[in-house]
Structure formats: C-alpha cells, structure tokens
Amino acid sequence: MSGPAADTHAPDAHAPHGDHPHHPEEGFIKKYLFSTDHKIIGFQYLFTGMAMALIGGFTVYVFRMQQAFPGLSVPGWGRVTAQDYNGLVTTHGSVMIFWVAMPVLIAALGNYLIPLMIGCDDMVFPRLNRLSYQLFLLSAVILIFSFFVEGGAFGGAWTSYPPLSARAEYNLTPKGAPLWLVAVAIEFVAFLLGGINFVTTMMNSRAPGMKMFDVPILVWMIVIASILFMASVGPLVAGAVMLLFDQTIGTGFYDPVRGGDPILWQHLFWFFGHPEVYVVMLPAFGIVAEVMTVFSRKKLFAYKTVLYTAIGTGVLSFFVWAHHQFIAGIDPRMANIFGVTTLLISIPVAEMMFVYIATLYGGSIRLAVPMLWALAFISEFLLGGVTGIFLGASASDIYFHDTYFVLAHFHYTFVPIAIVSVFAAVTYWFPKMFGRSMNETWGKVHFWGTIVSFNFIFIPLFITGARGDHRRIFDYTHFPDLMKSGMQDLRILATLSLVVMLSFQVIFLVNYFYSMFRGPKVGPNPWRANTLEWHAASPPPHGNFPVLPTVYRGPYEYSVEGREDDHWPQHLPN
Amino acid sequence: MDGTIPSEPPRSLRRVPILPNGVMGMLIFITAEVMFFAGMLSAFTIVRASNLPMSWPPPGQPLLPATATGLNTAVLILSGLALWFAHRAYQKPAPSGAEGSKGGVLALAICLALGLTFVGLQGWEWVRLLGQGLTMTSSTLGSFFYLIIGVHGAHALAALGLLAWALIKLRAGTLKPSVFYTTQAFWYFVVGMWPVIYVRVYF
What ipTM did this prediction achieve? Predict the structure, then answer.
C-alpha cells in the first residue's frame, strides 16, 4: 500500500494504519490471536461461533433424547435429571442465540465482509475490534466455566424470568445464574464495540465514488441490525444489572413483596429481545440478496424498496415486544395494540420475500449450493412467518402460549436465519476466504440431508404443540393426557430427525476443513459477481486491495442490456 | 453503451467522512448509553407508579435532598459551560504562539474542577443518606437511587478521567482535534443526562 492509495484514505484514518503502510508478515500467535486485521477477527468470530454451535447441538441432542425416551441413559451423557434438563435447555437457547447466531451473522460476516465490500483496507477502529473479540471470547469462557460450578449451568431458561432466575432456591443454580448474566452482559459490550465499528466504517470509509445506494444490501442490513442492537441493548443491560443485584446482594427490584415488579424484567428483556430477532434476521436477508442476484444473473428487484423496508422493519420492531407477554397479566387493551403492531410487521417482511421472488423471475438460475441454501431460506422462513400470525393475534396466543407450537414457530425462523443463511454465506464466500472451492456434490448431499430432516423435526412439533404439549415439561409420562393418540410417536420422530440432522453436519465439517487445505484452487471471482470483495485476491492479503478501488456503479448490474459480459463489477470504469 | 444506460453525473472520487471517526463512534455509543439510562429510569417510574398513592417515599425512608442536589446540578451545568469555553478557545487560532491555548487550558481546568466538585458532593450526599437508613436493600427507592445515581457517577468519573488526560495533552500542545471532540461529546452526555435523572428521581 503506497502511492495513490494513500490519497484515498479518510482524513481521520491516520491512527493505526497510516503508521504501518507495509503490513509485515507476523508470527502465528500475533497473526491469529492478537490481530487487528478485520478478516482474522472475522475468522475468530466464525470459528468460535462454530465451536459454540457444537455445544448448542450437543445439548439439544441430550434433552431431545430425554423427551423421546424418558429415563433413558443418553449415550454421551447418562441419565438426565430434571435439574440437568433445565440447564441443558437454558444452555441450548442462550448459546444458539447469543453465541452462535449473533457472532456468526453480525460479527463474523460483518467483520470479514464490510471492509471488503465497501472497498477499504480495514475497520476504522481496528484495536477496538480486537478488544471486541477478546471480550466475546471472555464471555464464552465464562459461560463454559459456569457448566462446571456447583449446581451446574443456569437453569432458568434463556429468557431468565424472575422470580425463577432471581432466587437460587427456585432455580437451584446459585453460581450458574449470576455467571450466565455476567457472560451475557460482557458479550453485549463486545457487540456494542463491534457495532460502533461497523456503522462508523460504513459511513466514513466507503470507496471513492460509492454512494449510499451503491452499498451492497448485506452491508446495509448489518449496519441497520447494528443500530437496532445498539438502540435496544441498553434497557436489557439495565435490567440485567438489576437482576444481578437481586441475585447477589439481595435487592428487591423484581420482588413484589418488597415493592418490586417481576413483569418489569419481561418488558426490559423483550424490549431488547424482539428487535434482536430482526437483528439476526436482517443480515440473513442480506446474504440471500447477494447470493440470489449472483445465481440468477439478475439485478436485485427494487433495491431501494428492500432498503426502506428493512429500515421500516427495524423501526416497527421496537413496538411489538409485549406480544411475548399476552398472558403475563398485562392490560388487555395494551395486548390489542401490540397484537396489531405484531401483525403489521409481517407486511414489510412479506414485502422483502416478494422482492426476492421477483428477483428470481426471468433470471437464468443456477442451482449451486449457496443458491440452494438461499432458496431454502425463503421457503422455510415463510413457514416461520406464517405460523407467527397465530401467535401475534392475542386471542389465539392465549391458547398457544408456551406450547411446542411456539417453539416450532421460532425454530422455523431461527434455523433459516442462523443455520440456513449461514450455510449460504459460508459456501458462497468460501472461495474468497480460502482461495479454494468446496465440493459441490457433498455440499448438495449436506443440503438435502439438513433441510429434509429439519422439516421432520419441527412439523411434528407443530402438531404436538397444537394438541397442547407444554414447552417446559421434563417427562411426559407424568401427563397421561399428553401421551395419548401417538403424541409420543411424534416426539420420537422429531428426536430421530434431529439426530439425522446433526449427523449430516459431519459431512459439512469434513467438506469444509478438507476443502480449506485440499480443495481445488480458484481465481479471485469464481461466481462472476460484481461486488468489490471479488475484486480482491483470494484470500485477500492484509490491506485487502493492492490499490484501493474506485466505484462506478451499483452492486447488482447483472445481464445489462447492450453489454457483452453478463456481469459488470463495481470497480470497472466501463 | 449505446444509450441503454442513463448517464450519471460524474462521481466524487474523494472519500468524504460525515464526521470524524472518533466523534461518530462516540455518538453511537452515547445513543446506546441514553437507552441504558432510559431503561433504568422507566423501570423506576413503573415501580414508583405501582406504589399506593401517598406512600412515596416508602415508610421509614428519608426524603431525597432535592434543593441541595439542585445546587449541585448547577455546578455540573457550569462545568459543561466551561468546557464549551475551552472548546472555543481551542478552536481560535493562537494570536501569538502558545497564548491562544492558555485560555483553553484554564477553562478546561475549571470544567474538570467543577466536575470533581459535583462527584464529591454526590458522594457526601450518599454518606448522609446511608446514615439516615436509605440503603441498597432497604427499599425499592434505595435500590433504584443507588443504582441510577451510581451508574451516572461512574460515567462522570470515567469522563473526568478522559478530560484530565485531554488537559495534560492540551498543556503539552499535542491534543488532536478529533480526540478532544470525542472527549467533549462524552462529557456533554454526562452533563446533559443529569437534569433528566434529577427531575425523575428526586421529585
């Protein structure tokens, strides 16, 4: 990096990079553990997230086995006690949302892709970025440490409602509960630092010529999601501090006997928790936009509509939180209002779906592995969205609340978001990340195995939920009404499908790590995509571009009329 | 491209930051912080509103010293004002060598001293209230009071640390504008948040 590149620096970017223009080769420890390079930090988040996903997958395997075969000595665990069960369920929920979905979708992809996609050499605050990952790692270590303390991992569910979560004599995890809260709080500080970095980088460091509407949708989505996160996380941290004081020094913030209010936590938690759904959903939609345009060789249908819709979804997402509390004793008039806003928010989301389908229309579609995942995202997420209508309407929610119907509903949203779209992203950007390509056949085997077994897990659970299965029951043999008419068969079907789905992930892991070192080498732009990251070498070196690129057009100019080549990269003058 | 693509006006080939990076990062951080305080204050409002009428403060708990704290609020606002003068002096081009920044150093020192006075007086108030039986666990009033005021005090101390560091740099003449503006933004947040807390908590 020298010569003309230096002129294109933002005036204020003098801090760490202007001083070291040559990026010398560093030792392994310094390069992979204490790097300030956004790509390495992205990998750190990605691999930590993948490792945490193994924990999340193992816990769900253990407690689903208990559901299907009560009292069985589960291979790899042993007999599941009721206390174990609570800890496993809580760990599964918190790990999958806070330590898998968020770090992979926002932190890993944001760190890796934002500077590459907007054409700059690094984040504007590289050292803050490194601190962000270190805090995240610390939070993961604290969480894992809490599995081994007296009483085991926190057993008050990932929503952590008081009084269950506030009093050790109820949740029976005197050490696990405060450790869980501390881990979550530290993690949020980590994401706060990351989010500040993303938004500032996107606003200030775009390549020369890149106007606001030339920014790829994925970058916009991550930025909007970061803003949502930062605006909603404050009240939750406030609530978490109060809950921590209730647990440790004996205050009564959530204790009605002493003048507190237990519903208060639910408000503070869901004021964060519901925008959080959109925090992870928007980047998933962003990934799908990138993949779909490339593999249908078509311009994104209505770029600005997608963007404004995403902003609208974000704003609306702050006004829906109380739909989690319809039976918590809130005023029924308030429930009406929140029912209406909840149903309203399905409109912008449906609009994005239609826009993506319109993008496919008339395109020359190529069903490569990333495209399969992207299409699966749209169709599976649709089921999640449609079943959400029953839960947003307060009248039907009173029946469905806390049943397996709810559980199946949000897994139909979260699995497409955190698993399906992430597989689309990982397979799509793999050639960029490692300069090699993954095996296409095994990719397809993995895709079909995962998607089919995923539907066989949750469709049975919709049925058991609609028939009244409550979510928080450890052993159904104590409830004869819930053991009638094949209910147990459905539970066993769901569990076996889960085992199948988990075993198919082995194919992915082998394919992924084998291809990382042995896969066939590919050039910088194997998919013939337009966005700037494909202009950099594969894998991009420290500093990303030999000369920082200049942008001449939007990111989705595919099959432009009158042009021989069917793609038109953003950095080409003509 | 034979007319199929509408021609666009030429693009600016320079990278134009909207605000200095540090200031923008700090403003985003402050947004999150404002929501943090909003969370605590609204929780306090809800808990307080769910008490029976005429039962606030809870039985056996002291009244919060609204008048004394009102004066202390004035001290904090004056500190913010002093920072504004420091900013003006810093921006003015020095007429003859180091003379220009001298006013800045003085104003920043005053700002720092007033800020420390505020925190000190708050600490003294805590000691008195603890003596009157208001503790973290004595009632929800006590819990919320020490939580909200304590969190604000911690922010004030952090900001004062930054200001002291800026003062040292300013005296040495090595204070970068973006660093100074970032620090200012944080202190203005601490000052601006306080009247809201004062009105919501003390009355």
Answer: 0.90
- Long-range own/partner contacts, residues B121-126 (CB < 8 A, 24 or more apart): B121/B68, B121/B72, B121/B75, B122/B72, B122/B149, B122/B153, B123/B153, B125/B65, B125/B68, B125/B69, B125/B72
Q: For chain A, say whether B7 makes contact (Cβ under 8 Å).
A: no
Beta bridge partners of A470: A403
Q: What is the DSSP string of B19-72?
A: S-HHHHHHHHHHHHHHHHHHHHHHHHHHHHHTSPTT--SPTT-PPP-HHHHHHH
Q: DSSP 3-state assignment of B137?
A: coil
> What is the model's pLDDT at position B116?
96
Mean pLDDT across chain A: 91
Out of A203, A261, A563, the one facing B24 most closely (by C-beta) is A203
Say yes or no: A296 contacts chain B, CB-CB below 8 A. no
Q: How confident is the model at residue B50 (pLDDT cuts 50, 70, 90)?
A: confident
Nearest to A166 by CA among A90, A252, A107: A252
d(CA A430, CA B172) in angstroms, rounded, equals 50
Report yes or no: B39 at the A interface, CB cutoff 8 Å.
yes
Would you give the DSSP letter of residue A537?
A: -
CB contact under 8 A, A260 and B140: yes
Label residue A432 by pLDDT band (50, 70, 90): very high
Nearest by CB to residue B58, choosing from A236, A259, A574, is: A259
Percent of chain A surpassing pLDDT 90: 82
Interface of A with B in 253-272 (CB under 8 A): 253, 258-261, 264, 267-268, 271
Q: Which of B19, B26, B28 to mutate to test the interface with A (most CBs of A within 10 A)?
A: B28
Q: Does domain B21-40+66-202 have CATH number 3.10.25.10?
A: no
Is pLDDT of B97 > 80? no
Q: Where are the domains of chain A?
A: 41-535
Q: Are A534 and A525 in contact, with CB atoms under 8 Å apart?
A: yes
Q: Which chain B residues contact residue A233 at CB under 8 A? A: 32, 35
Among candidate residues A58, A190, A41, the one with its CA nearest the CA of residue A108: A41
Q: Report the pLDDT value the prediction gives residue A18, as an integer from 0 to 100.
A: 39
Span A405-433, average pLDDT? 96
* Short-list A541, A539, A523, A461, CA closest to A496: A461
The whole-number average pLDDT for the span B161-172 is 93
Please check whether residue A312 is in contact with residue A348, taking contact to mean a CB–CB distance below 8 angstroms.
yes
Q: Where are the domains of chain B?
A: 21-40+66-202
Strands A78-79 and A73-74: antiparallel
Q: What is the pLDDT of residues A77-109, one digit of tens each?
A: 999 999 999 999 999 999 999 999 999 999 999
| Alpha carbons B155 and A366: distance in angstroms, whole number | 55
What is the band of A4 on the pLDDT scale with cuts at 50, 70, 90? very low
Chain A closest-CA separation from residue B151 CA (Å): 10
* Rounded CA separation B192/A172 (Å): 43
What are the residue ranges of helices labelled H in A467-559?
487-518
User: CB contact, 8 Å: A562 with chain B?
Assistant: yes
Which of 3-32 (A) contact B at CB < 8 A?
Answer: 8-13
Within 8 A by CB and 6+ apart from A265, the residues are A160, A161, A162, A165, A239, A242, A243, A254
Q: Which CATH class is domain A41-535?
A: mainly alpha
pLDDT tens for each residue of B15-44: 667 788 999 999 999 999 999 999 999 999
- Cα–Cα distance for residue pair A274/B63, rounded to 1 Å: 38
Q: What DSSP string runs through B150-170? A: HHHHHHHHHHHHHHHHHHHHH
Average model confidence (pLDDT) across chain B? 88
